[in-house]
């Protein structure tokens, strides 16, 4: 048997997550991973590298708890929000349980479930990118975890709060509801954090990768009641956060770091509005979907042509053509004013 044949069957069958970086491209304008377009600047203040780090560094947990308005016991820090997705599946799903999610949405729910050998159930979003609660309810049998991304990546849609509450109702005592709030800083009023007190089966995923402009740091959070956090603590790696990561994350969560994040959000929102208007004026654009994130989902007459033309000119966007219901759609992260302008001009030059 060769090495691949020795690997688990579900790993043999696995298509790895097509991350923006993995997809490659030879660009100088990177608008395909919803990153912030410029880097914040931090110096390391901790220089003790011979000792293992604190498993859940106090300054990071305290900083995030204060920022999110919860207690320290409600916060778990991990290697990005992506690790949180996998921890929840690993901690709650037996081999014959399943995970439910609603495409088009973030690709890692499926990849993590498949990696863990857990079955997938999908209930597509409705035509206006909302939850199909009737179908979800019919499909809950054997489901241990339901993932909802809000605002949703890649559509930018906010899922109706009343629907999230209904989902929490129909899953109580049966399944964990994960609300992925990776982009919540761009619409902070929509957070479900204040519902934690009412729902022991609610878990909220957060990250420093988007509005905090620290995707390179690999730092994310789970917010939940203490009992759920305790379950995740059992399965997380012993030292998930390297010393330099904890050092920078703690600084980013200081009042000054939060103020800088809020300024960044304001800048992104005004750039998003400009880009949206400019794209809506293009004859090649069929629709720019309303977005509450740092990206726009755009439906073109010929999305693949636009994607390829910009790709060839070093402007790397995210093609969504193959996502459920998103034929001819391209996701464009909000870049700097100059980058967004280049997108608009390059599209205008396509005949
Ligand atoms: C970016 C993102 C995450 C988490 O990213 P990390 O870099 O792993 O923290 C989680 N969910 C969604 C929907 C995202 O777009």
TrEMBL record:
Pfam entry (one): Aminotran_1_2
Enzyme class (EC, first level): transferase
Names of the cofactor(s): pyridoxal 5'-phosphate
EC number in record: 2.6.1.9
One example of a Gene Ontology biological process annotation: L-histidine biosynthetic process
Molecular function, one GO term: pyridoxal phosphate binding
The keyword Glycosyltransferase is assigned to this record: no
Catalytic activity: L-histidinol phosphate + 2-oxoglutarate = 3-(imidazol-4-yl)-2-oxopropyl phosphate + L-glutamate
Keywords: Amino-acid biosynthesis, Aminotransferase, Histidine biosynthesis, Pyridoxal phosphate, Transferase
Pathway where this protein functions: Amino-acid biosynthesis; L-histidine biosynthesis; L-histidine from 5-phospho-alpha-D-ribose 1-diphosphate: step 7/9
Subunit structure: Homodimer.
Family classification: Belongs to the class-II pyridoxal-phosphate-dependent aminotransferase family. Histidinol-phosphate aminotransferase subfamily.
The protein, known as: Histidinol-phosphate aminotransferase
